[in-house]
Design goal:
It comes from Modicella reniformis. This protein is an alpha+beta fold and 198 residues long. The protein has helices spanning 12-17, 68-73, 114-120, 125-128, 130-146, 182-197; strands at residues 22-27, 30-39, 46-52, 74-81, 87-93, 100-103, 151-152, 160-162, 166-168, 177-179. The protein is elongated.
C-alpha cells in the first residue's frame, strides 16, 4: 500500500480544507506569513498570499525588501492592487528551503475563499474552469490527430503524450509542455499557440 501524502503532518484533505487560512512557512532564519493559496502535491512548493498595507515600511514580514538570500528560497512573484487599494504579493517557497509549516488559527474568521484568492492573484477564469480545460485538451488532441501526429491520452490520464517525447499538462497552454528535446518543445508550444489564436 502506498504511503499517504503528508506535508509537515497535514494530509491532502487537510490542505484542501485549509486553503485560504492564515499560515506561516518557516525558513532558516526567516519566515513568511499570509494566506495559504496552494501547495503543489508533487514538488511541495508552497504558495502564500500576503496582504501589504499601504505605507508599510520595508521588511520581510510585509513581503517587501527581500534579500538575495531570501529570494533564493522564496520568490516574490507579483504584487497586485485591488479596487480597494490593498496590495498583495504571492510568495513562493520551495520545498528545499522549508524548515516548518503551520496554520496560525483554526478559528480565524478572516479566511479567504478560493474565489477571493483567485481574484486577488488575477488568475483568469479560463485557466481554472474545468469545462474550458477539457475543451482545450479535446481541441489539442483533435488538432494533433488531424496532422497525423501520434498522440496518447485518456479520460484517466490528464496529460497529453505526443510521440512519447512531449507531454502537455493541464491547463494545456504553451507553457504546459514538458519535453527534453528543445526543438520539439518549441514546435509543440507553437502548435498550441496557433490553436489558441484560431
Amino acid at each position: 500500500m502506498a504511503e499517504e501524502w503528508r506535508f509537515f503532518g497535514f494530509t491532502l484533505q487537510d490542505i484542501h480544507s485549509k486553503l485560504g487560512s492564515p499560515c506561516v512557512a518557516t525558513l532558516v532564519g526567516s519566515e513568511y506569513s499570509g494566506y495559504l493559496y496552494n501547495i503543489d502535491p508533487e514538488t511541495y512548493t508552497v504558495f502564500i498570499l500576503q496582504r501589504l498595507c499601504q505605507g508599510q515600511g520595508q521588511g520581510q514580514d510585509q513581503g517587501q525588501g527581500l534579500t538575495q538570500e531570501q529570494v533564493a528560497h522564496g520568490d516574490n512573484i507579483e504584487t497586485n492592487v485591488k479596487e480597494n487599494h490593498e496590495a498583495w504579493d504571492i510568495v513562493v517557497v520551495r520545498q528545499h528551503a522549508l524548515k516548518g509549516f503551520e496554520f496560525q488559527n483554526d478559528s480565524e474568521p478572516d479566511n479567504l475563499s478560493v474565489e477571493e484568492m483567485d481574484s486577488i492573484a488575477r488568475v483568469p477564469h479560463a485557466l481554472i474552469d474545468p469545462a474550458k480545460i477539457k475543451a482545450r485538451k479535446e481541441g489539442l488532441v483533435a488538432m494533433l490527430r488531424s496532422k497525423r501526429i501520434p498522440v496518447e491520452t485518456s479520460a484517466e490520464d490528464a496529460v497529453v503524450h505526443i510521440m512519447n517525447s512531449a507531454h502537455v499538462h493541464p491547463p494545456y497552454l504553451p507553457l504546459s509542455v514538458e519535453c527534453a528535446n528543445g526543438v520539439m518543445l518549441e514546435r509543440v508550444r507553437s502548435m498550441i499557440q496557433e490553436l489558441h489564436e484560431e
